[in-house]
Amino acid sequence: MLPSENRLRRRQDFSTAVKRGRRAGRPLLVVHLNRDGGLPGRTDPHRDSSPHAAEGLPSARAGFVVSKAVGPAVTRNLVKRRLRHLVRERLDRLPEGSLIVVRALPGAAAASYLDLEHDLDAALRRLLRTEPTGSAPTGAGR
C-alpha cells in the first residue's frame, strides 16, 4: 500500500499535476509529473495543514486514474494495485514535493506486471531527465 503522506486525494492536486506538469505517454499508461506542485506557497498554500505533513519539504505524492475504459471494477482495481506497488518502489527517485499522476490506458487491462513496470520506468526516465537551460538554441554555434 502507498503510505498516506504519499497519496494524492484532492481534485486540485490532480489538476495541478496534469495541467502544470510534464507528460510522458507510453502504450499502456500516461504519466504526468509536476516537480514543484507540493511546495508550500507555490500552488497549494494549505498543503502543510495536513496532519500527515512531514517537517521540511513535503514528500512526493502520487495519484492514479483508471477509468471504466480499462475494464470492469475487478480489472480496474487490479491495474490500480499494480501501479500503486510500482510507484511506491520508485518514490525515492522523485524530487521532493513533486506530484505524479499515472493514468492507465485500456491496454493496461491485459498487460502483465512486467509490461506495466517497463512502461512506467520508461516514462519516469523521460520525465526525470534534466531539462536544457535554454541559453542557446539547439544546433547553434556550428
UniProtKB/TrEMBL annotation:
The gene is rnpA. The lineage of its organism: Bacteria, Bacillati, Actinomycetota, Actinomycetes, Kitasatosporales. This is Ribonuclease P protein component. One of its GO terms (cellular component) is ribonuclease P complex. It comes from the Bacteria. Pfam families: Ribonuclease_P (PF00825). Residues 36-58 are annotated as: Disordered. One of its GO terms (biological process) is tRNA 5'-leader removal. It catalyses: Endonucleolytic cleavage of RNA, removing 5'-extranucleotides from tRNA precursor. GO terms for molecular function: 3'-tRNA processing endoribonuclease activity; ribonuclease P activity; tRNA binding. Belongs to the RnpA family.
